[in-house]
Amino acid sequence: MRELEENHMLSTNQKKSTKMISKRGDHVEYVKDSDKKKKGRRRGKAAKMERLQESKVDVNLNALCKSLKFHRRPGYGQLGTKCLVKANHFLAEIPGSDLIQYSVSISPEVTSQKLNKAIMTQLVKLHRNSDLGMRLPVYDGGNTLYTAGPLPFTSKAFTITLVDEDEGICYIRKLQFKVTIKFVALASMLQLHELLSGKQVDYPQEAIKIIDIVLRELAAQRYVSVGRFFYSPNIKRPEQLDGGLESWRGFYQSIRPTQMGLSLNIDMSTTAFIEPLPVVEFVAKILDKDVHSRSLSEADRVKVKKVLRGIKVEVTHRGNVRRKYRISGLTTQPTRELIFPLDEKMNMKSVVEYFQEMYGYTIHYTHLPCLQVGNHRKVNYLPMEACKIVEGQRCTKRLNEKQITSLLKFSCQRPHEQETDILKTALQNGYDQDPYAKEFGIKVDNKLVAIEARVLPAPWLKYNDSGKEKEYLPQVGQWNMMNKQKVVNGSSIRYWSCINFSRSVQETTAAGFCQKLIHMCQTLGMEFNQDPAIPIHSARPDQVKKALKYVYHAAGNQLEGKELELLIAILPDNNGSLYGDLKRICETDLGLISQCCLTKHVLKISKQYLANLSLKINVKMGGRNTVLLDALSWRIPLVSDIPTIIFGADVTHPESGEDLSPSIAAVVASQDWPEVTKYAGLVCAQPHRQELIQDLFKTWQEPERGTVTGGMIRELLLSFKKATGQKPLRIIFYRDGVSEGQFYQVLLYELDAIRKACASLEPSYQPPVTFIVVQKRHHTRLFSSNHKDGNSTDKSGNILPGTVVDSKICHPTEFDFYLCSHAGIQGTSRPAHYHVLWDENNFTADEIQSLTNNLCYTYARCTRSVSVVPPAYYAHLAAYRARFYMEHDGPENGKMCDNTCITNRSCVRPLPPLKDKVKNVMFYC
C-alpha cells in the first residue's frame, strides 16, 4: 500500500515558530513562520504547461479539422425483426430567432463559480424590472451572459453588495463588487436549425451550449450539481452506506441534436454523499467503534485525518451563527493538551479554557484531537464536538468494496422502474413552467420518444467437429458448452506448474483443484498433461518474485532446457498487490502465461467456474474457443472477400488525484483470417491524461541504421502477415473511450498514424480504413414499448440482444447507431453507441451493424454475447493489465520524473516490454 503522508502539525514544542496570533470568533487561529509550500506552485506550473502543450496540439489539429467532414450516413438498416422501443429522450422545440451574447466582468476578480453566480443572481433580482428591461438572462458562471432579446444598453456597470446571509456560501461580512455587462454579438441559431434539417454543417457548439445553460439554470438552483448531474436527498430517500456515507439519487441532463430535432436526454444516477452528521458521530462510523470515551490510536487518527481532509463543516456552538470551514488536518495531540499563544508576548492558553471563557462552551470530549481548518500558514483549531458536516458534499474518495456493493444495490433498477423514475423526474422538473425556458422560447415534451428499432439475428457459431453439436445458434444472447461442444481449436499444454499463495488451501486441495481444472480443459477439447513439471509449490504472498523465479527455473532444470508454458496461481481472496506483481513478472520478465484463481473458488469448486477458466486458458495458450460460421463460409461482407485486420484501441487514464501517473494505451489486432477471433495486443505508457495514442507509429534515429520506424500498428500488421501469410488489404479500427469533443483530433491524429505505419512497410501500401468510435459512457437507454410482453424482452425485462437503433435519436447527418448486443442480467441494459467517423470501405448500415453485432458473440471469456465489440473490449483489458506493469517503488514505476515534465513524452518512463511469447497471444483474458 502507498504510504500516507502526514501534514505538518503544531505541537507544544513548536511554540517558538509562532509569529503572530489572532482570535476570530469561534476558533483559535495561528500563523506559522515557515516557508511556503512549493508543491502547489509546481502543480500549477505543470498544469499550465499541460494546457499550453494541449493548446499547441489543438491549433495544429483544429486547422485540419475545418477541412474534415465525418462520414455521412449511407442509409438506414433494414436487416432484422422490426419492433418499437422507447428512449429516454424528450423532444425540445427551440426559438427561431437569434439570441444575444454579453460579456461579464466582475471586479475584484472572483475565482469561485458559485460566488459568481450568487453575484449575478443578486444583480438580476435588483435590476431585472429596471435596467435589464424585464429580461431574464442566463449566466454561465464565468464571463458570458445570454439573453433572449437585447438589453436596453450596450454596456453598463452595476455595483452589487453581498451580505453574509446565505449559509451555502462563505461571505465575509459584506462584499462589494463592480459588475460590467457589455454586448458582444448575436448568437446565431441558423447553423443549429440547418443541422437539424439534415444539412452537413460545422457543429453549432455555441447554440447548443446556450440551450443547455437555459435548461440547467432552474435545476442548478434546486439541486446539488456535479458536472452534468443533479442530486438531491428529496428525489429518493437516501440509504446509508458503510463508513459515514449515504447514497443520493439524482439525474443526468443534456441537450443533443438528433434526427427528430433537439432532444433532452435524461437519465437517473446514484452517487455517494457524506452524511451530514456531527463530526464525533461521523468519526465513530469511520472507525466502526465508540469514540466518546476512548482516545484514538495513531493508526485511527491517521485514518480519520485521511477521510476528513477536504470536508466542509459548520460550527454548532454559537447558536444561529453557523460559519463554515474546510478541514485541512487533525491535531496530533488530544484537545486537553492543546495550548496556543494568546498574544505576541507568548502568553499561553489552552483550547479548553479558550472555548469556556470565550463562548461559555464546555468541551466534553477532550480526549479527541481537534480539527484543523485553514491552510498550512493559518491553521485554526475546532473541537470535533462543536462541528457538524455540511449537507450536500459528494464523496470524491475511493469507496471500499462494501460501500460499492451497497451503492450498486441501491442504484440497480429494472427497466420499467428506471423508465418510471425518468418520467417522474421530467415532470418534477416542470420544463413547461420553467421561467428560463419560457423566456427563451424553449418547449420540452413530457413523453419518452418512441422509435422503430430492429432486432438483428444471432449468428451461428462453429465448434469442433468432434463435439455433439458442430454448429450452434445462441438463444437470447447466450449458449451453454457444457457436455455439448468442444472448442474449435484446443491448445496443447505439456509443461505446467502451480504455486499456492493461500494459507487456507492445503496442498492436497490445490492438487485436487488442478486435476479438476485439467479434466475440464480436456473435456472442452484441449490437450493437457495431467502431471505438473514440478510438485505444487507453496509460498508466502510477500515472496511472489522469489517464488516465481524458483518455480520457473526449477521447472526449466527438470525439463532439461524446455520451458514452462503455464502457471496456475492460487491467490488469497484479499491479495493486495500480489495479483499485479505476479502478472508483471510473468509477462514482462519471465515470458510465462499465468492463470490466477481465488481461494474461495478453489475451496468451493463449481463446474461453471472451471469451464470459464478453461475458456480463458485456451485462448491464452493460443487456441480458439468458437468462430462465426459465416466467417468459415466466407459470407461476412467486406471481411471475407479479402484479408481483413480488425483493430481495437483504448486509453485508460489514472484515477483522479493521481497527478503524475501516466495514461496507458493499448491496441489489439486480429491475427487470424477469415475467422477474426484471435487478437494480439500491445501496450504503452504515455503522458498523463493524453487521449491521442502516441505510439501507433513512431520513428527514431540510430547511429548505424539511421531512421528507424516502428509503433504498435506497424508491429501488429507484421504480426498479422506472419500469422496468416498475407498482408491485410482492409483495416477496420474500433476506437474506445473517445468523447464527442475529441472526435476530430483523435481521427486526424490516429488515422494519419495508421497511414504512416502502412506506408513504412511499403510506400504504395494504403489499405482502405474504416474508423469507428465505440462509446459506452453515454446516457441513452432503450426500453421495451410493452414491459409485460415477454416476447419483446429478455428475462431481466430489458430489450432483446441484437436491438439496433439508427433513426430519430441518432445524429442528423453522421453515421452512428445504438446497439444493445447483450442480454441484461440485472439493472437496465446500456446499449453501446457506435459512430463511424471514417469509412473508405463503404459499408452499408446493415453490413457494419451486422458485423459489429456478430463479433459480440466471439468474446473468448464467456458463452454470452457481450455489450461492446470484442476488439475494443480486449484493448480495455490489455490497458488495465498494463497498469500492473508499473512497479510501486523504484525508478521503473512508470511515473513522470518531475511535475514540470508532465507534457514531455521523454519524461514518461516506458513500460517494460512484453515478452514475445506473451504479446502474440491473448494474455489479457
How would you describe this structure to a colleague?
The chain has 925 residues and is an alpha+beta fold. The chain is 28% helix and 26% strand. It is built from 21 helices and 43 strands. It has an eleven-stranded mixed β-sheet, sandwiched between helices. Strands 1-2-20-19-16-15-21 form a seven-stranded antiparallel β-sheet, with helices on both faces. Strands 4, 10, 11, 12, 13, 14 and 22 form a seven-stranded antiparallel β-sheet that branches. Strand 30 (566-571), helix 13 (578-590) and strand 31 form a beta-alpha-beta unit. Helix 12 crosses helix 13. The longest helix is centred in the first third of the chain and has 27 residues, at 39-65. The protein is globular and about 85 Å long. Residues 1-59, 165-172 and 889-905 have low confidence and may be disordered.
Q: Gap between N and C termini, in Å?
A: 26 Å
Q: Rounded to an integer, what's the Rg over CA atoms?
A: 31 Å
Q: Helix proportion of residues, in percent?
A: 25-40%
Average of the residue pLDDT scores:
89
| Major beta sheet summary | 11 strands, mixed
Lateral arrangement of strands in the main beta sheet = 35-34-33-38-39-43-42-41-23-3-40
Structural class: alpha+beta
Q: Sum up the overall morphology in one term.
A: globular
Low-confidence stretches: 1-59, 165-172, 889-905
Q: How many helices does DSSP assign?
A: 21
In terms of DSSP E residues, the strand content is 25-35%
Count the strands? Answer: 43
Protein name: Protein argonaute like
